[in-house]
Structure formats: structure tokens, C-alpha cells
Amino acid sequence: MNTIAKNGVTHIEQGRTFSLQLSSGRSLPVRWSRAALGEALDAVLIDGPERLDVLRRLDDYPHVRRLLDADCLDAARQRKSQVRQWLSEGLHVFGAYKVGLKLVRLAHASGVAIKGFLDNDRTRQGSTLEGVLVRHPSELALENAVVLIASGRHGNAIHAQLNRIPGIRLVNMSEFLYALDAPHAAGDFPDFVEAPASEPFRFISAFLRLDDERSRQVFDTLIGMRTRLSIALADSVKSPCDEEYFDAQFVGPAHAARFVDAGAAAGDTLCRLETRFGPVEQAWLFEPELPAYYEALKHFAPRAQVWLFNMGLDEVSSRATYRPGLSYDIANEMQSAIPADITSYIQGVPLDAVVSGRVGLFKLDIEGMEARALRGARAIIARDKPVIAVCAYHRADDYWKLIDEVLSIRPDYRVGIRLYADILEDITLYFH
To answer: Which residue intervals define the domain Methyltransferase FkbM in the entry (predicted)?
Structure first.
């Protein structure tokens, strides 16, 4: 295997593995190949020699670089042991809303005692959620207490608020899920934490497919959040939540005018899109949950340019049993005659079989079915090259597998990634 020093010659042969010396002196096996990222088992894959300029600077991205170290999960595993001990004492949950509700249900199922909800919203004071009393943090003596921070968008602010209390022991959502070996989206949270360390060449290769520096900084931070169970890291790269799916670097008015929404819920994303870009020329909304679908119908049915489908997107025509546990309306906020726990089926269809008109923006948030839905839209993606905004936090391998799916259809896409929360959710891959 040939070696290219950090300041050496950059002439390399396609398909041949060589050794690249990083600025730290460490050598890394690299291969110039158009193969899928899934093939990055024994070397980092680059899709062109120009990627070497970034790869040579891998030491500038400390969390991605640490994937090459055998001990990169040591801190997470030590924290896991410590948090498990704390959970045996029971805990308070700060955040009496969707994230808190989800974590309290998990705690109850895992035998972890919940001492109460905490929330800064005084209108919630004295109410109960999941049978647990909600109180303002000023009402309690929280010295030496164990408190789980249950907020997607305010986690770091809550941490700063509580961290002034003497002896308080704070646990973030990632630490809690890892300590319980809990399920996460379409997989298990331990897999989500450990996959980058067990498949370093795939994740580093995915990092090298990113085409802008901000995306590389976000990716590096996300790897740190996963392998170190950190939420504090998010503060340096998090984008405003109202930009989710619509980052101005990737999405413009011409894209938004013809919009496909997979996982449309009650149409809230379309509302945000039109607030930002104005009325759509055409929108296709896919929502399999009956209560959310009917809520969307109330708002959009009179508009001829908005088509609503009570179905999901898939690679082929399919039918699956609806699982209420995946409902986005976890707090039962929608007023609907259709019960959220109704036994029903989700019909899946390929986008190519339903949509014939031009597509400018294709958003996907469908609980781990994103890869299958992309394959079911191959013809539209190949024909129109829409901007694709796809959630990348449901499966442990989303960061590289979704890149493989899209680039297998059109290798001329550029790739970006953004984070919109303090936790390992609301992560969007952009293809533009």
C-alpha cells in the first residue's frame, strides 16, 4: 500500500488503497472509489482526489477523528454506569411536555421511580401528566436530587438554570436512554451511540461526502453528541428550529413552490413553508395517522392545489399495521373524533406511482422508512432533482445509508446536514 505524506504528492489511482498521513502523524487507509459508503469496511472512501484536502485536516474535527481510537466510547460507558446508579434512587423530570411524557413512560416501563415533573411554565403548576404532579422548580429543595432534563430545544438552558443548585445531579436524554439500553426511533439507543465507533470508515467516508464547512462542523458535533452523550456540544452548531427543512443555503422559493411532504402530520410543515415562501403552486401531503390526516383535511381541503393522502410512502405498494406508539401526537393535543389508538392499517405507495408533476422540494420524516421511500421515488428524483430534506435520526446508520440511497439515483447531488435541537433528533440531511 502506497503512502502519501501530509505534504506529499497527491497523484493516486482510482480503486487502489493508499495510506494518508494526518497532521498528527497517524496513517489512515484511503481508497478513491465511487462505491457505496456501505463498502467502506477496510478503508475510508473518497469520491475524488479533492476530498483529500479535507481528509488531511481530519485532526481539525476531533470527534470524527476520535472514531479511530479504541477508547472513543470509554467516557460514554463510564457515564452509563454512573447514571444507572443514580436512577436507582428515582428522579425528577424537568419538562412536562412531549419529550418528558415519552421519557416518563419509558421510566415507568423500566421500573425507574418518578418523583415528579418540573416545569418553568407556571400554568402547568399543580396539574398532572401521566399521573405525575407538575411543580415549578422553585417549590422544591433540589439539592443532591437527580433530575432528568427532558427538552428537545431548551435542554442546555435548563441545564444552566439547574446547575447552580448545590449537589444536583443532572441527566440528559441521551444519558438516560443509554443507561436503560432503551429503544430509539426505529432501533435501539445503544446501537445509535456505538455505531460510529464500530463502523468508523463508513462514518468518516460519509463525513467526506459533505460539501460545505458548516455541514462538516455539524457532523463532527453530532458524532461527539453520540459517542460522548453530550448535549452541550449542540449549542455551537444548532440552527433555529423554524429553519428545519428550509435552510436557506439549500432551499429557495422555486424549490418550495412544488412540495412533497412525507410525514405531513396535520400540515404544520406546509404552514411554515408558506409563511416563509408564500403559497405553493402544488403540494402533495402524505400522512398515515387518521387523526392527523383529518386535522389536515380541516385546514387544506378547500385548496385545490393541496392534495392530501391518508397513506405513507414506500418502495413498493404495501400495508402495515398502524402502531400508536409512533404517533407524533404523544400528548393527545388534537381534538379528533378519531381515537389515536384506533386499530388501523397504513397503506404504503411509491411516490413515483402517485405524483406525476414536477417536484421541487421533497421532505421526509417517516419513522425509519425514509430509505424505502427514497427508493420508491427514484424516477422523480432522477427526473427533477428536487431538493431533498430527509430526517437522519431514526436509524443508527442514517448518516451514511441515506447518502448512499440518494447518490445511487443521482450522484450529482451536493450534500449538507443541519441540527435543530439540543438532543439527537431533528437532524436533517439535505441533498441539493
So the answer is: 345-408
Q: What is the pLDDT of residues 142-190, one digit of tens each?
A: 999 999 999 999 999 999 999 999 999 999 999 999 999 999 888 899 9
* C-alpha–C-alpha distance, residues 146 and 11, integer Å: 57
Let me know if 371 is exposed, middle or buried by CB neighbors in 10 A (0-12, 13-18, 19+): buried
> Which CATH number among 3.40.47.10, 3.40.50.150, 3.40.850.10, 3.40.50.300 corresponds to the domain 238-431?
3.40.50.150
For CA atoms 269, 275, 277, 283, the dihedral sign is positive
Residue among 364, 379, 371 at smallest CA distance from 399: 371
The model's pLDDT over 28-76, given as tens digits with 9 standing for 90+, comes to 999 999 999 999 999 999 999 999 999 999 999 999 999 999 999 999 9
CA distance 52 to 8: 11
Q: Tell me how far apart the alpha carbons of residues 73 and 228 are, in angstroms, rounded to a whole number.
A: 7
Domains of the chain: which residue ranges? 2-69+195-235, 238-431
Cα distance from N-terminal residue to C-terminal residue, the chain = 36
Buried-state track 143-153, b at ≥16 Cβ within 10 A, e below 16: eebbbbbbbbb
